[in-house]
Design goal:
The chain has about 325 residues and is α/β, with parallel strands linked by helices. The protein is built from eleven helices and twelve strands. The protein is about 30% helix and about 25% strand. Its main location: membrane.
């Protein structure tokens, strides 16, 4: 088997607070091949954003990675020095945040910020860096890129600022982009345009992508594979077709049933009862147990992630569809 571009094994990120230890990421394992798009899905507080930040070493105190490995092109990034991580961030692994106004400097022109991003990693002239920036803006569909380079962030709409953020992420043709809900605040038309452009760029450049989101509809149109997270753990993983068509974990099924669909006209939408539990006070065993309509006594013990193969697995004693297969606990 070919070595994956990224392999995350048993990643644990904890926040040491006065109230106790918050296990935001608790044993997450993922793999990603070159050119592949992975959707990381879950409710708010599931740990998906912290997982992305942990991969790049961007977790601030009181949080810290306390266990596991993050193998990027065979190199373990956990415990790597800040100098080494700075060399990788932006150049080999780029990150797109949810709010571009939090990452774009309001007092510097777009051109200045993009040129500085290029020259931070490569010894090139300002003219060459400017030309590369111009091409990057054109690539994400921004018209009149020369004029836009001279503009400031407040002169762009939300969708255009997000395109700028994506363009900055593409400046060095990174091997991996981690996108943390970058289209959540955008209208549907702009969202569709950005999703199309991201897919196209991944196909053309071979860049791999982790798309962090709570929106399964977005994932179904964008990703190759999906990992579903709940309470800091991956509870199901598989291809988009497998997750959408035959979900095995009750939480995944609940997420899908809460999405409006023209294919289920007249059928009331179902909601998952209760709320996401506090990471400080998780129930014993399966964290989804108090909200699950399939829970049994066996669920008082945390199940392992197991299934048909490494990239098609679920963490459940009583998976959906188990009755027909005869493998219920």
């Amino acid at each position: 088997m070919t070595e994956p571009l990224l392999r995350v094994d048993g990643l644990k990120t904890h926040f040491l607070t006065r109230a106790g230890t918050v296990k935001a990421v608790d044993g997450v394992s993922l793999r990603l091949d070159r050119g592949e798009i992975l959707g990381l899905v879950g409710e708010s507080g599931s740990g998906k954003s912290v997982t992305g930040q942990s991969i790049l070493g961007l977790v601030d105190p009181p949080g810290r990675v306390v266990g596991g490995r993050v193998l990027f092109r065979g190199e373990d990034l956990v415990g790597a020095g800040e100098k080494r991580l700075r060399a990788i961030r932006g150049r080999r692994i780029a990150m797109i945040f949810q709010d571009p106004m939090m990452t774009l400097n309001p007092v510097l022109s777009i051109g200045t910020q993009m040129v500085e991003a290029v020259q931070a990693h490569e010894k090139v002239s300002r003219a060459e860096a400017w030309e590369r920036s111009r091409r990057a803006l054109a690539r994400v569909g921004i018209a009149s890129p020369d004029e836009r380079l001279a503009a400031y962030p407040h002169q762009f709409s939300g969708g255009m600022r997000q395109r700028v953020a994506i363009a900055i992420a593409l400046l060095h043709s990174p091997d991996l982009i981690i996108a943390d809900e970058p289209t959540t605040a955008l209208d549907v038309t702009i969202q569709a345009q950005i999703l199309f452009e991201v897919q196209k760029l991944c196909r053309e450049t071979g860049t791999a992508l982790i798309w962090v989101t709570h929106d399964l509809a977005v994932v179904s149109a964008l990703a190759d594979r999906v990992a579903v997270m709940y309470a800091g753990r991956v509870v199901e993983t598989g291809t988009v077709a497998e997750i959408i068509g035959t979900p095995r974990h009750p939480y995944t099924r609940g997420l899908l049933e809460s999405v409006p669909s023209r294919n289920r006209r007249g059928v009331p939408l179902r909601s998952i009862p209760g709320m996401t539990p506090s990471i400080l006070d998780l129930p014993e065993g399966c964290a989804f147990r108090p909200r699950c309509d399939r829970s049994t006594g066996a669920c008082a013990v945390m199940p392992e992630l197991s299934g048909e193969r490494e990239d098609r697995a679920w963490r459940c004693w009583n998976p959906v569809g188990a009755e027909a297969r005869g493998d219920a606990a």
